[in-house]
Amino acid sequence: MKKITQFIALIMVTFVLAACNNSLERATRTVGLMQEDMSKIVNQLSEIQMLESNLQSDFDNTLAGTDDLNVFLKEDSPVSLNLSKRKEHLTTLEDTLNSLVELADELIALNKNTHLPVEQFTALHHEVKTLESALTAYITDYRSGIAQESISFKSIANPDADYANFFGVMSNVNQLAVTNNINLDKVLPSFEPINSRLINVKVTLVNMADNK
């Protein structure tokens, strides 16, 4: 009977160790994927910013070589393509943010395994949720702004449009850009703490794996 009890205890210990190893590997993988998502978010924001800076030249190129303002109604005009590309980057940005939040939730679900750095996971999760709130507002307002930009640029083709309308379009676009920058300023402060926490968590997990 004693031998059976010892055998069962050995099996239980082996099972617990295996579960700990699996949780550690899962956490390490999750942190790595979160780092990839953070890089993707930065890249998408950079692409959007670059397209914003190119908008004036795309506007000029749309007008170049033609007196027909109906060019602003064409989907393949430089201005329309600029808007379309920014919409695509916003969608990718949103998808990547959702992925990051899901990974953070997955990480926090591992907190039941007390051998893992629970406090670090919790702090990281809090930072990600802060980023989610700010970046969601940025995406929502930006998406609405692009729709308004599209309407504004297409209004240039209106036969009744005059110079006042023309310059009003640019004023509207500039105001939307100001709103986007204000929202972006609320997003950027989250990057440093999240990236720092991801690095620290990864170091902790690697050290735990080395000390097994």
Report on the structure:
- The protein has 212 residues and is mainly α.
- The chain has six helices and no strands.
- Helix 1 packs antiparallel against helix 6, helix 4 (118-155) runs antiparallel to helix 5 and helix 4 runs antiparallel to helix 6 (191-210).
- The longest helix is centred in the first third of the chain and has 52 residues, at 2-53.
- The chain is elongated.
- The model is unreliable at 1-20 (pLDDT under 50).
Shape: elongated
CA(first)-CA(last) distance: 32 Å
Query: How confident is the prediction overall: mean pLDDT?
Result: 88
**Rg measurement, Å:** 26 Å
Q: What is the helix content?
A: over 70%
Uncertain spans, ≥5 residues at pLDDT below 50? 1-20
Number of helices: 6
Backbone structural class: mainly alpha
| Percentage of β-strand residues | under 5%
Largest β-sheet summary: none
SSE string, helix = H, strand = E? HHHHHH
Tell how many strands the DSSP assignment holds: 0
